[in-house]
């Protein structure tokens, strides 16, 4: 494991509902599991995020009687994409995937648990002002170099990277340990990450 105390592996939303067989499955999302498990051995500090929605959450298309993926609503914080019901609190789909093996992880950050605001980013909810508490935890621990992996590139991973940079952290995305939902939104997010200087590497650069 890394002896550099400023480094942390941030594992985004590796939950049943986001991997094949789940209600909002990311294509080939399960391919990240063995890579993340190996990366976990490289880092002394590991943090996980967990999408944790109440029933009737604002992001669920069923809450509004609308179509998932195709329809949007205007929330108090802007346009909200609507999704199938996913990662409902205490459901099987909200569980971290059983093949994820990071026994030394020192924190799980639950996000999206407020009914009226969604939360893609590990740092801030979608209103861009409500903190998850992660930034304070990292600063208190002196963890300033954050390596991101998990799902999905074009949403929760990407927005975590953008907010991490804005909050002053050194952010790196481990590309082969991330999967995304759709090529168009992945390309758009990649351009946004490049514009703010998010570094991108392959896991081999860390694992040797």
UniProtKB/TrEMBL annotation:
GO molecular function terms listed in the Swiss-Prot or TrEMBL record: metal ion binding; nicotinamidase activity
Entry keywords, A to Z: Hydrolase, Metal-binding, Pyridine nucleotide biosynthesis
Top EC category: hydrolase
Keyword Hydrolase: yes
EC number: 3.5.1.19
Pfam families assigned: Isochorismatase
Keyword Plastid assigned: no
Pathway assignment: Cofactor biosynthesis; nicotinate biosynthesis; nicotinate from nicotinamide: step 1/1
SUPFAM superfamilies xref list: Isochorismatase-like hydrolases
PANTHER family reported in the protein's UniProt record: LD05707P (PTHR11080:SF2), PYRAZINAMIDASE/NICOTINAMIDASE (PTHR11080)
NCBIfam families: PRK11609.1
Protein name per the record: Nicotinamidase
